[in-house]
Amino acid sequence: MSDQVVLTADTAPDAVDDTPPSAKLVLTVLAHEGALTQSRLATETMLPTRTVRYALKRLEEHDLVDSQISFSDARQHVYSLNDDLFARAETRDARA
């Protein structure tokens, strides 16, 4: 994927610091793989589905990820990085 977000301590929003390690792993996978369903995230991270669900809940509370209903299966959501938030963090760090 050509428009990957590189997550580093410098480019991640400050809210990432308040998330558990499982949530940081989910963010990293989303940054590298793009939008994924909860079950695909569980597969990619090798975390239990329940842990992924908790991580996504925490990430949504901090507005770090967006979710949309899957077009291929309306019973599932597709999760992706909140690009606006990460773009603001990159801009903030570029100014510093």
TrEMBL record:
Gene3D superfamilies: Winged helix-like DNA-binding domain superfamily/Winged helix DNA-binding domain (1.10.10.10). InterPro entries: ArsR-like_HTH (IPR011991), HTH_MarR-typ (IPR000835), WH-like_DNA-bd_sf (IPR036388), WH_DNA-bd_sf (IPR036390). Residues 18-75 form the HTH marR-type domain. It comes from the Archaea. GO terms for molecular function: DNA-binding transcription factor activity. This is MarR family winged helix-turn-helix transcriptional regulator. It comes from Natrinema salsiterrestre.
